[in-house]
Write a structure and sequence with these properties.
This protein is an alpha/beta fold and 553 residues long. It is built from 18 helices and 20 strands. The strands form five sheets. An eight-stranded parallel beta sheet has the order 11-10-9-5-2-1-13-12. A five-stranded antiparallel beta sheet has the order 14-15-16-20-18. A three-stranded antiparallel beta sheet has the order 6-8-7, with no helix packed on it. A hairpin with a 6-residue loop joins β14 and β15. It binds 1-O-alpha-D-glucopyranosyl-D-fructose and calcium ion. 1-O-alpha-D-glucopyranosyl-D-fructose binds next to loops.
Length: 553
């Protein structure tokens, strides 16, 4: 397997709005991030992926961009950005930018022009259609509730928006649009940025004619824009025009990306992207495509999906490994036990991440085991996704508010967006003002200051895991073989690289689990490498609740 820096790197995602506020306005900012670079270096991460920091009216917290080549007022200035970039490089780290080019803000000058008249030079930068029988051009619905079309009085046509109405979709069929985007990408890369995380990167190409979607519960229309007809052509072109000219890292965020498609997007000789974020393991706890319904996922189901990707990508493409991001619940609340076994289970979950093939991503706050927030009232939530849905389903639709609130408390994106908990001071030390989103009240116990002081903390364990990965290339490149796929408590696997072997045993449960050593291992003189309980030899024994142990020989 060919080595590459972006395969060996550990990535840390920053959601700037919630990371660190430097000036007391309650909103995280670039100087705030700069003040914490030494902390990130101490953790040991190599790459920082910054969620969007561009000019934006913040309908969707920066994922609605009104100027791709300037910095959001609340976050600082271009000067601050350059200081940040230098600060990252001086510490031998790299910076990956968020590239949001499926859509812009409706306040982007392209859209402001586009909506003026049908013959405006920018008209064709977006997707405009005549009404059909006085209504929307097709039946597609948006990710954030309601139709994916908005009627615009000025010209009597509708425009497409897969997300909010303030996020009109760009028309990727238009070559001019694509080349504008490529130029903008070069602007950041020429400045020294080290790559892109590409937002909803499998949605750019829509099926010509924009046919109706298959009617179903949940969002309608996806089969007409997910992994669309020209998407690979677009990535080849982007690769040829931009990506191939720089030594960078690229990751496409792609919901509903089947394995066969991922093998193309991230295929090693296909000249598209380095890797994708896929969501198959993430989607397992949903029910019937209903966004807010959830269920407990039996371990064998989760393992089946994770293992499938490990095996299928080996030697052909490259995985990204993540448990959460700014759109997902907190890992320990969703997959571990955020009460009795918060530390143990979080450590186990990241032991898994750091011992699989692929590039691991840590979302801010995961290194101290931050939890879901479980707000009492809908008013406490900020997310446009939640408020749109509430309006449509509770206020207009008369649905049971308690039931919906229960689902929201579990799955809300705001769970990951509460401010970073730096200390036990007011507002977790995130701001001296009023935070834009309430701090999780558990900041008194769960915070960075406490984690740094405690030798046994999740932070220090995460630090060791990262170091372990750097010292053992097998953790990065080894192939993957699973044992006992039907075991409902234990995830057991082996990695192989050159003449080395690594064994991993993970007890994903609140109960002790009996571990019977597979025959092939009996002969192996494996030594304990890392784990979240005191060292024990590799032998048949019971594993404590949420015990994780890694062996090597
Ligand atoms: O998310 C894309 C995506 O698939 C998510 O929309 C997910 O389905 C959603 O969060 C739940 O409804 C990306 C960004 O990560 C997200 O923050 C943006 O809101 C979205 O794209 C639009 O840019
Ligand atoms: Ca601020």
């Amino acid at each position: 397997m060919e080595r590459a820096w972006w395969k060996e790197a550990v990535v840390y995602q920053i959601y700037p709005r919630s990371f660190m506020d430097s000036n007391g306005d309650g909103i995280g900012d670039l100087p705030g991030i700069i003040s914490k670079l030494d902390y990130l270096k101490e953790l040991g991460v190599d790459v920082i992926w910054l969620s969007p920091c561009y000019k934006s009216p913040n309908d969707d917290n920066g994922y609605d961009i009104s100027d791709y080549q300037d910095i959001m007022d609340e976050f600082g200035t271009m000067e601050d950005f350059k200081t940040l970039l230098d600060g990252i490089h001086e510490r031998d780290m790299k910076l990956v930018m968020d590239l949001v080019v499926n859509h812009t803000s409706d306040e982007h000058p392209w859209f402001v022009e586009s909506r003026k008249s049908k013959d405006n030079p920018y008209r064709d930068y977006y997707i405009w259609r005549d009404p059909k029988d006085g209504k929307e051009p097709n039946n597609w619905t948006s990710y954030f509730s309601g139709p994916a079309w908005e009627f615009d009085e000025t010209t009597g046509q509708y425009y497409l928006h897969l997300f909010t109405r303030k996020q009109p979709d760009l028309n990727w069929e238009n070559e001019k649009v694509r080349y504008e985007i490529y130029d903008m990408m070069k602007f950041w890369l020429d400045m020294g940025c080290d790559g892109f995380r590409m937002d909803v990167a499998n949605l750019y190409s829509k099926v010509p004619g924009l046919p109706d979607g298959i009617p179903r519960k949940g969002r309608i229309g996806a089969e007409n824009y997910q992994n669309g007809p020209r998407i690979h052509e677009f990535f080849h072109e982007m690769n040829r025009e931009v990506l191939s000219k720089y030594d960078i890292m690229t990751v496409g965020e792609m919901s509903d990306v089947p394995l066969e498609e991922a093998l193309k997007y991230a295929g090693k000789d296909r000249h598209e992207l380095n890797m994708v974020f896929q969501f198959e393991h993430d989607d397992l706890d949903t029910v019937d495509g209903e966004r807010w319904a959830y269920r407990k996922v039996p371990l064998p189901e989760l393992k089946a999906v994770l293992s499938k990707w490990q095996v299928a990508m080996n030697g052909k493409a490259w995985n990204s490994l993540y448990w959460t991001n700014h759109d997902q619940p907190r890992t320990v609340s969703r997959r571990g036990n955020d009460k009795e076994y918060r530390k143990e289970s979080q450590k186990l979950l990241y032991t898994m991440l750091m011992t699989m093939q692929g590039t691991p991503y840590i979302y801010q706050g995961e290194e101290i085991g931050m939890t879901n927030v479980y707000f009492d009232s809908i008013e406490d939530y900020d997310d446009v996704e939640i408020h749109n849905c509430w309006r449509e389903r509770v206020i207009k639709g008369g649905e049971d508010p308690e039931k919906l609130l229960d689902g929201i408390r579990y799955r809300a994106r705001d769970n990951a967006r509460t401010p970073m908990q730096w200390s036990d001071e007011e507002n977790g030390g995130f701001t001296t003002g009023t935070p834009w989103l309430k701090v999780n009240p558990n900041y008194k116990e769960i915070n960075v200051k406490e984690s740094l002081a405690d030798e046994d903390s999740i932070f220090h364990y995460m630090q060791k895991l990262i170091r372990m990965r750097k010292e053992n290339l097998i953790a990065v490149y080894g192939d993957f073989k699973e044992y006992e796929p039907d075991n409902r408590q234990l995830y057991i696997y082996e990695r192989n690289y050159q003449d080395q072997k690594m064994f991993v045993v993970l007890n994903f449960s609140d109960q002790e689990a009996a571990f019977a050593m597979p025959e092939e291992w009996e002969k192996e003189k494996a030594k304990f490498l890392i784990g979240n309980y005191p060292k024990k030899p590799l032998e048949s024994r019971t594993f404590a609740p949420w015990e994780a142990a890694v062996y090597i020989r």
